[in-house]
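Ticket 4471: requesting a sanity check on a complex prediction with zinc ion. Repro inputs:
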Amino acid sequence: MNILLITILSSFLFYGCNTSNSVTSDASSTKVNNSAPYYWLPSTLPRNLKTSVDFSADETTAIREMATAWETAVDDQVNFFLTTDTTPEISSLSMNLDSVGEDGVNGVYKITSWPLSLSTRALAVTQIFGRRFNVGASNEYVRIEHADILVNENIYDFRTSDPGTAGSYDLRTVILHELGHFLGLGHKYGDTIMRPSIGTSFKMQAPSTSIDAPDLADRYGVTLALTPLNALVSAPKRPLSVGPQAPGDMIKIIIELHPTGECVHKENGVIINYHLTEL
Ligand SMILES: [Zn+2]
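Returned structure tokens:
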């Protein structure tokens, strides 16, 4: 199936800020809903999240703690990740992201040679391969079939304890954000780790109970013991019914986290939305 997916896959969808609800596009002669929710089917969880052997012990611990933090956020009702394994590093200027997506490894990589195919300014990138179902229907969704996280250690420094080096970014904060994308979450504003940009001084090492936890709970069909009164009610919901399932476009999503507030949405290599955010 993966080979088929990669072969057919020809669209590039960059998606950043969660402001494209009204945007539809003609990805393969079918109108798709860019605000349709993304998630893993429960039967494909937990994912074996493998960390690059190039990460230090402290960095590996930080990454695994953030994986656990997303499970804690939904009262441990969903086991999203297994986090005991490591994987060889793939860092290379000529990295083929399709191959990285084909390898069957859900990796978190420490990239010291940032691939030329990605924006040099991205702090980190989450790559997702997925497939649309129920295209055009009210219960359209994207079934995530693969995901990887690339941390840009080529031009940025990341810290696992404060204060770290001058100009460094908090690794836990960045990883928590990228793991949110890994699980299907998009960008939001307010008290959320899913803000579209992260600065050097920003530190958030657990999902928020007001926005992030209820959003993820909705996405994976679980009910939190304590749902905050101010929970975001507009979060994309997992469809109550996912059938009959008519698979639509194979899509490749690249989500770039920028430190500048820059937010770029691309589909089929074309920018469909571009603006600057202020956080
Ligand atoms: Zn992001």
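Notes from triage: The chain has five helices and 15 strands. Leaving this open until the requester confirms.
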